[in-house]
Amino acid sequence: MSDTPNIGFVRHEPIPPSAPPIQQAGMVKWMRENLFSNWINSILTILSIYFVVKIILASTPWMWNGVWTTSSLRECREVLQGTSGACWSVLAERWNQMLFGFKYPVEAYWRPTLAFVFLLVCIAPILFQKLPRNMLIFSAIYPFLAFWLIWGGTVLTPVVVAVSLIVGYLAFVKIERLTGFAAGVLSGVVAVALVLYLGSFVTAALPEFIALEPVASRDMGGFVTAALPEFIALEPVASRDMGGFMLNLILGTVCVSLSIPLGIVLALGRQSNMPIIKGICVVFIEFIRGVPLITLLFVANVVLSYFFPPGTNLDLILRVIIMITLFSAAYIAEVIRGGLAALPRGQYEAADSLGLDYPQAMRLIILPQALKISIPGIVNVAVGLFKDTTLVSVISMFDLVGMIRGPISSSTAWTGIYWELYLLAILLFFVVCYGISQYSQWLERQLRTDHH
Amino acid sequence: MSSTTQTGASKFSLSMLINDTRYRSTTFQVIALIGLIFAMGYLVSNLLSNLADAGLNISWRFFGETAGYDINQMPIEYNNQMSHGRASLVGAVNTLIVAFLACVSATILGVIAGVLRLSNNWVVSKLMAVYVEAFRNVPVLVWILIIFLVMSNVLPQPREFRGDAATSSMWFDMVAFTNRGVYIPRLVLGDLGWAVFAAFGLSIIGVFAFRRYARNLLFNTGRLIPTFLPSIGILILPTVLVYFALGSPIGLENPALKGFNFKGGLHLRLSLIALWFALAIYTGAFIAENVRAGIQAISYGQTEAAAALGMRPGRIMSLIILPQALRVIVPPLISQYLNITKNSSLAIAVGYMDITGTLGGITLNQTGRAIECILVLMLFYLVISLSISAIMNVYNNAMKLKER
User: Fold this and answer.
1) What is the 3-state secondary structure (H, E, C) of A419-445?
2) Judging by beta carbons within 10 Å of its beta carbon (0-12, 13-18, 19+), is residue A4 exposed, middle or buried?
3) A291:B378 CB<8 A
4) A54 in contact with B at a CB cutoff of 8 Å?
5) Partners of A244 in beta bridges
6) For position B304, what pLDDT does the model report?
7) First CA to last CA distance, chain A
């Protein structure tokens, strides 16, 4: 019974695993797999990194050395004394012009700003279903509020229009229950027109730019019977004074929101089995989609006035809104037609078998589903349209790009400056468009009803 | 015996027009038609009375009148004594030139970016994502203006190429980048120059014939012959042989500095280059997304199945994935081509004389015939759009999944 004293060491626990070879672990492994997996990848990686580093090295000092406080490009160059640096002062000095245009009254800048803040509040409940539903009341009020804030004039103008729409809606609901959809729509339209007509005696219900008589003065006196032109009035601003990024936003939001209902009507018309209605819609859609927006803007600029009754004085901004709305309605109609076509036939048949008539079937069964499918497409059109609003600079309206190309670049103080200005334009458009497209992707995930 | 006659069906009352589904759609269509006719009539009568007030009329005679303005890029013969019609034609050709150049480069750029965005290489795929998002979300007009301004500010003036102390020099004595444009060599055709082009055209047909032969061989016998190198050989060798056999009938005319400017060669104006690059880069970002979506639409099972059959990755891509992905990629690709053609009308912002610049710009301003000019301008774009759509429909029908 001998102990085994000469055994020096007995291991009681397993040896801890040694660290993996350095090439198979951590950062190195990741880099080997993702950056240098073969020689093509290695070349691509090195090239890309070289490219990125070069851009960063070139642009960082330029941005960092930027001058913010001078009043002309010459002074900027004196301050910089030949070193690389941006002349950000142009942004500091012309910031308001780029946002609001160069004619919008300075003391009224708070109005479009407020309208913009309200815009965010207004679209929040539309974008996010989880927000309280009664916020939608504000969304319904918003168009009238925004109009009043941006264009000014008496508050009665938008109020009369709003009242007319409410009365029209009530008439529609009442008559539709009694007779049918078509009669309901008809009576709704009649009611709107009637209230607008009556309202025009109380105030100049139709603002200057849709007045049928050429308006000499700017005091909103289009109608002689305007009894209360100064009732809770803001200083009126003519729409030719709108400009800058504000104009892009106005055109974008107004045209997209107007073109969605029009697009729905066109899409339904194109899907209908009545050959004449279908034909009208097809010709309209294909025509609009076949021509560039610029030609339509030319139409708005020089031709459209010929088609209105003699003496009509339509504002350029309104003519542009009409043409851009028609333009985007055609595209939205195609998107919605895709949504309608994607619905299984069973949905249409189910609606029929429930005894719903066509308007009911569309409103209760078909459109809610078709619109849901079409949301990504509609958002794409909206983003495209928002970018296309810059085209109005071609017909000498001073939107953001128009301001940069026109008054700012040609002013003596800032001739020859371009990177700083266009970088701001890129940034503004990128933030809005990228934001919208990210929202659309988020919404697509939310609305997905199949379970992946 | 009195038979029950169905009097109700034959009796027609006015209310059936709206309440009876047999007549209702006709009623609505007739109402719509009448409404349309009235609306059109109203607009046309407004138009006529407005034109009468302004002392104008509709006339197409101005197309034959002398234009009297110069166009800075003339792919076909033109001088300012020629007619407005001729000027519009020059503009139309210029539109087609820039649209064609931009379509080709946007496709190349888009396919490369789309494939690279799916690459395993983290840096590259992120870089491509940045490219796509940055260019897609900013108006193309801004890109056109930026490229134009940067080039005209950064590139050297022609006089900097002059003298012994020149600060700039040409590339290989052939290409000069100046702020007035890029000068490249021009091809000068000799007497037999056409023969070289004919040989090249025949080689292209030959390549297709060879690939068809190789495919039939593969399908019929299972023998796989190499196609890539032979294709390149067929493409290049005959042309080169013909070229030297005929004693170099095609020469190059290099641009050269004469006085204060370059003469000779081909002058690509900055406006053309800015428009071309901007359209290519902007649309390339959209095409990249289409390509990516097309490749991702093919389920991974296809790749695995092909791999299980023992195919190599390159062949999996070219024989299995791409043919299926193309069915998804091509329709949006064509509509991107349409967008390029329509967006080329932004030429007016940088002074490139496309049809919007000649017919819709100077001709319109000179003659004041807005309605006629814009109508013809729209018809031009409409014809292009509709013909491309027609081609696309033919293609779609040919590529449709053949289901039984």
Assistant:
1) HHHHHHHHHHHHHHHHHHHHHHHHHHH
2) exposed
3) yes
4) no
5) A399
6) 92
7) 70
Centre a 10 Å sphere on the Cβ of residue B379 and count the other Cβ atoms it contains.
12
Distance CA(B309)–CA(B306), nearest Å, equals 5
Give the number of C-alpha atoms closer than 13 A to the C-alpha of residue B322, restricted to the C-beta side: 10
Nearest to A295 among B33, B49, B377 (CB): B377
Question: How many Cα atoms occupy the beta-carbon half-sphere of A66 within 13 Å?
Answer: 15
In 3D space, the residue among A140, A90, A80, A126 whose CA is nearest the CA of residue A439 turns out to be: A126
For residue A60, the surrounding DSSP H or E stretch is: helix A39-64
Q: CA-based Rg of chain B, rounded to a whole angstrom?
A: 29
Does A216 reach chain B within 8 Å, measured CB to CB?
Answer: no
Which residue of B lies nearest to A308 if distances are taken between CA atoms?
A: B46
Q: DSSP state, A208?
A: G
Q: Longest C-alpha distance within chain B, in Å?
A: 122
Alpha-carbon distance of B290 to B294, in angstroms, equals: 6
Q: Which residues contact B253 (CB under 8 A, 6 or more apart)?
A: B185, B186, B187, B188, B264, B265
Partner B contacted by A34 (CB < 8 A): yes
| Among B51, B130, B131, B142, the residue to mutate for chain A (most A Cβ within 10 A) | B142
Q: What are the phi and psi torsion angles at B356 (to 5°)? A: -70, -30
As beta bridge partners, residue B251 has: B188
Q: Is A358 on the interface with B (CB under 8 A)?
A: no
Per-residue pLDDT reduced to its tens digit, B365-378: 888 888 889 999 99
Beta bridge partners of B256: B263
Q: Which segments of B171-227 does DSSP mark as H helices, in order?
A: 193-221
With vertex at residue B321, the alpha carbon angle to CA B317 and CA B323, rounded to the nearest 5 degrees, is 110
Interface check A383 vs B, CB under 8 A = yes
Count of A–B CB contacts within 8 Å? Answer: 154
Instruction: Please tell me the distance from the alpha carbon of residue B64 to that of residue B84, in angstroms, as a whole number.
Output: 6
Sign of the C-alpha dihedral computed for residues B306, B310, B312 and B313 taken in this order? positive
pTM above 0.80, yes or no: yes
How far apart, in whole angstroms, are the C-alpha atoms of residue A15 and residue B184?
72
Query: How large is the average pLDDT for residues A4-22?
Result: 80
Annotation: CATH topology of B101-163+269-399: MetI-like fold (1.10.3720)
More confident residue, B190 or A173: A173
Work out the average pLDDT over A213-219: 38
Q: Which residue of B lies nearest to A32 if distances are taken between CA atoms?
A: B121
Q: List CB contacts (< 8 A) between A53 and chain B.
A: none
**What distance lies between CA A180 and its chain's CA centroid?**
35
* Residue of B18, B141, B342 to mutate when probing chain A, most A C-beta within 10 A: B141
Q: Which residue in chain A has the smallest CA separation from B351?
A: A394
Please tell me the distance from the alpha carbon of residue B81 to that of residue B76, in angstroms, as a whole number: 14
Give the model's confidence band at B236: pLDDT under 50 very low, under 70 low, under 90 confident, else very high. confident
Of A41, A302, A426, the CB nearest to B370: A302
Are A156 and A202 a contacting pair, CB within 8 Å? yes
> Where are the alpha helices (H) located in A85-233, listed in sequence order?
89-100, 110-127, 136-151, 156-178, 181-202
Q: Using only C-alpha atoms, what is the Rg of chain A?
A: 31
Find all residues with CB under 8 Å of B166, minimum gap 6, and list them: B160
Token code pair at residue B60: 């197409």
Domain ranges across chain B: 101-163+269-399
Judge: B385–A289 Cβ closer than 8 Å, yes or no. Answer: yes
